Amino acid sequence: MPTYVQHAVLGRIPDVFNAEAIWQAPGLALFSRRPLLRDLLERSPREHRGRAATRCFSHVTLMLPQEDVDDDYHLTRGARARDLAQTLAALHQKDFGDLLGSDQVRYDVSGDASLAPGEIEVKFGHAVYLPAPDEKILYNVSVSRDSAIWHAVCPIYPNQRLALIGGESGEASAVAQGWPFGPDAAVLVLNDGPDAQPVVQMRPKGAFDCRYDPRGGYYTVKSLREPQGGQRLLLKIARAGAAPVMPTAPQGSPAVWQSRAGAIPIDLTAVPAASHKPADRPGESDATYAPVSQQRVSLVALALPRLSRYRDTGAQALELPFDHTLSLSAEAKPAIVLTADANDQLYACTAEGRQRVEAPATFAPLDSRTLRLLPAAPEMADRYRALVCLAQPLSTGVASGARFTFGRNSAMLASLRLLDSPRFLKRGEGASTASADRIGLSRNAFSFEATGKGYTIGRLSPTQALYHLDDKLQFIASIGDAPYLLPHGHHLAAGHYVLRFEA
Q1: Architecture of domain 290-318+358-502 in this structure
Q2: Which whole number is the average pLDDT over 361-369?
Q3: Of 63, 240, 253, 306, which alpha carbon lies 20 to 30 A from 488's?
């Protein structure tokens, strides 16, 4: 492929801050001396006609031994590094001024701990760009191996045409952490300005599959030189300042997990205000009637609470570990763990590390399944931080014409209450262990009955918050004490659970 980045390491420089020693060696023994910066720029012009250079590169980065840069900062607050950049820019302008046109000469000096004393690493080329002092960032580029932990790679500026991203041992202009494809591979990003979408291409051509995932907002890159199931890299190009902002919700007191001393027991025999049992037909009696129609209730999402509401319980974090099938699991090494902490911050943890996240987001540790993180609707944001849409919903059948209850004391739909265990709730020292369902879910939260038009919902506890969401998980209404008809295919949020009531 074309050489987008010219790269060289200059050695045996007695004083790495001596611009003249870096630019050009004294004397006329041109064939006996090693090439220095001026020679490299002359041998690799930006444009040429035949063998004659017509345009010169004008942006150059220099890496000095980190110890020398640190000493300069300690002793002179970086004055020698600044003088070096200014002097090299002046020499560059003096010797190549006729090949620069309107281009500004810019130098950047930084440190690198991998360089030996007396070594200087130099980079310039089509994909090396240094911003003007007042130039704002247009895009931020980041990479991930699992779509949860993202590592910043480089910014892209409005006037920057190209960026070449690769591994540490490659010739790229920016290094991606955890680069899996070897030194000869690179991602080329082409920027045609703020009014055009950036273009992403892999190099070498034909060796990689690069696809954009609109759900996650990133590119998935896979090597075609490896067998199926090989390494992959996810690349995100985000416009600067375009990150979503979570709504700020007021903090309140816990809805449940209250002291039950002296409390009036809940009437477990309560019945709904209206019965939807079909009327008896001739020859039938109430004793012989039995429902035969089967409908389904599915757990489609888990709601992450605002734990700041429950500080008096000692709850410090709610942790949701998902295995390599993206099923909720408590195995030793989950593929990803989503956490809501006591300060209402959300985190994702994988083998790559731990990182704060915000909704909306999509996590795809595997190619076949994804977890979606949706922001809680403003009407629910005082209690919930976000909704985690399960990769594979869980379902169970319910009989039509009979009324059931849902809650901590109810056996009905118990298989859907995945968090009914203390292992998911982290509490402070001295706090007793308790099921995570103690936060937000009453002993008897609500009753439900399948009918021909939907499900009738009845709130059984005055402290239980119930929310009606439509078939796309958009907020519809809060459910109070009056009987409520939930249409088929719509959702009900109660405690940590978002349940879909299906026909």
Answers
A1: Sandwich (2.60)
A2: 85
A3: 306
